[in-house]
Design brief:
With 435 residues, the chain is of the alpha/beta class. It contains 7 helices and 28 strands. The strands form 8 sheets. Strands 7-4-6-5-9-8 form a 6-stranded mixed beta sheet, with no helix packed on it. Strand 24 and strand 25 form a beta hairpin. The two termini are 38 Å apart. The structure holds adenosine monophosphate (AMP) and magnesium ion (MG). The site of adenosine monophosphate has 20 residues, from loops. Magnesium ion (MG) binds next to loops.
């Protein structure tokens, strides 16, 4: 292991927000070339998991020509004359018109319910509202001028999917629509990727672990909130948090913590990445021969963010990936949360085997002028209001990257572009959603 100390003064200049995104995306793409281990889960436990095998249509969908309206199965051409049609009987959802009956002939109709299969010979459904039955129920007369094109009011067999079609590909994160599509094929269990394990290492001499009964805490100490918030973010991302004990601002302590974290699929440190005398994280990582992709990003909160990987020679060979990725998240609690959302989340998606992950950005109209010093892309606690027809966003007053209270009064982050010193009220701006 390399024991040389990193020359921090030689750090390259911080990347722009866009450059840092590209850097993480490049590593995410590399990770996606290797599939994580697979396991089977029940459909009920599959929400939020990533598919390892495709969900294939078990038969044509719909499996029969399916009526989408209550009414009468008819031959569309018969409606042109407006002549009464003779009602042969009815077919309900869950039934089929007997196969030994002759196909529906001209002048005939069969009462049909939504979800029922179309009888042979019929090519449209006349809605019940558009037909008048004779008092003896033997015939119906279409409403005046009511004509239908063939194909009206039913979905033809196999028009949604053919037997064997892929309905959800490997790499899909199971959401409610995918649960529905799997159940719609009669599946009760699925093959998914193992969830990544994420080691969480908070560093700082001032930190005290929240505990019950409460540990004594001096006025100059603070509770370690980053480990809990990061663990929650890891869980929300569908991964498994592995909390490590706090590392103090000493080489040995941080190195021990990093070593303990190398068992996991991803290592997240918080704190100790700024320019202070006791910010030792980069130096200690250098001792593990770490490769640094960047050591700063022009964003606020989160400027000192560090991203890199430790090569195979220095990690236990416990998983499929040849190197161990790490982020040195800045210690300020909002910096930790914002940099997770922007940069950790996409890498974690790739580690989970999830393809096509998208950052949760939206657009909303700014309710007031917003001014900031240019040069940094800012992510500011804000309130997104989507209760009205037009979404609006209002910054929440804050006292910087440590302001947990302001963050808890916000429901999103307003994105202020680095090159726009004044964003006037009424402008559509990007917001970063939570979760
Ligand atoms: P650092 O990045 O170590 O310079 O820390 C920046 C600020 O974040 C300091 O005010 C720290 O006390 C605070 N901080 C660092 N780590 C944590 C943590 N785990 N929980 C809460 N605050 C933290
Ligand atoms: Mg610190």
């Amino acid at each position: 292991m390399n024991t040389m100390h990193r020359n921090i003064a030689a750090n390259p200049p911080p990347l722009s927000f866009a450059q840092a995104l590209v850097s993480v995306a490049a590593q995410a793409a590399l990770l996606l070339e290797t599939s994580p281990a697979q396991e089977a889960v029940s459909l009920a436990d599959s929400l939020g998991r990533v598919l390892a095998a495709p969900i294939l249509a078990d038969r044509d969908q719909p499996p029969f020509d399916r009526a989408t309206r209550d009414g009468y199965a008819v031959r569309a051409a018969d409606l042109v004359s407006g002549q009464p049609l003779r009602i042969l009987g009815q077919v309900r959802a869950g039934e089929a018109w007997p196969g030994d009956q002759p196909p529906l002939a001209s002048g005939q109709a069969i009462e049909i319910m939504t979800g029922a299969p179309m009888p042979a010979g019929a090519d449209a459904v006349l809605m019940v509202e558009h037909a008048e039955r004779s008092p003896d129920n033997a015939t119906l007369r279409p409403a005046t001028g009511r004509v239908l094109a063939p194909g009206a009011n039913f979905v033809p067999r196999a028009s949604e999917a053919r037997n064997g079609d892929c309905l959800a590909a490997p790499g899909t994160r199971m959401g409610v629509p995918h649960i529905a599509v799997a159940a719609g094929c009669g599946l009760t269990s699925l093959s998914v990727y193992a969830r990544p394990r994420v080691a969480i290492l908070a560093t700082g001499d001032e930190l005290v672990e929240p505990a019950s009964p409460a540990a004594p805490i001096a006025a100059h100490q603070i509770y370690n909130s980053n480990s809990d918030s990061t663990a929650a973010l890891v869980q929300l991302a569908g991964a498994i948090p592995v909390r490590l004990p706090i590392a103090r601002d000493r080489h040995q302590d941080i190195a021990d913590g990093i070593r303990a974290g190398l068992d996991a699929d991803l290592l997240l440190l918080s704190g100790g990445v700024s320019m202070g005398k006791y910010d030792l994280v980069e130096e200690v990582l250098t001792g593990f021969d770490a490769e640094f992709f960047f050591t700063g990003v022009r964003i606020q909160p989160g400027k000192p963010l560090v991203f890199g990987r430790i090569p195979a020679g220095n990690i236990p060979a416990s998983n499929a990936h040849p190197a161990r990725y790490f982020f040195g998240l800045p210690g300020n609690p909002l910096s930790t949360m914002v940099t997770f959302a922007l940069f950790v989340r996409p890498l974690l998606a790739a580690l989970a085997g999830e393809k096509d992950w998208q950052p949760p950005f939206a657009l909303a109209r700014l309710t007031q002028d917003f001014q900031h010093a240019p040069g940094l892309t800012r992510f500011l606690p804000a309130w997104l209001d989507t209760t009205q027809a037009e979404p609006t966003v209002t910054p929440v007053p804050w006292h910087g990257s440590g302001d947990l209270a302001a963050n808890a009064r916000a429901n999103c982050y307003l994105v202020a572009p680095e090159d726009l010193p004044l964003v006037p009220a009424g402008t559509y701006v990007r917001v970063l959603l939570r979760g």
